[in-house]
Amino acid sequence: MDIVYEKPLAKNAASILRDAGYIALFDRLSGKQSFAHKIRGDRYPRFHVYVLEETESRLKLNLHLDNKEHGWSERRHDSTYDGEEVSAEASRLMRWLAHHTGQAASAEKSEKKNFWQNFFGN
Questions:
Q1: Would the pLDDT of 30 be above 90?
Q2: C-alpha–C-alpha distance, residues 73 and 55, integer Å
């Protein structure tokens, strides 16, 4: 699932994803950096994000759910690119991105809500 966010962010994508609980991964074979967020304590399943585009006013992410690690004989791993779990995580990421826009900080102060109230929409 592609996530497109078109507002200026106060932090870069890597910082925002780390704040949202993602860890940075680097694939030595492809030379690409990505980010993963474990669902439970195990390595899999996990949400996996690639930053496709990052400019001053636009961020495009590719999010999917890695269900299990692929074997050496398999070309692709078992991934889910849409569905309820992926949509819920995309919504959570959109809330993180909205929290990190320049406008979110001033709105947060004027509404006198704490971070968790803004995060969960209460």
A1: no
A2: 38
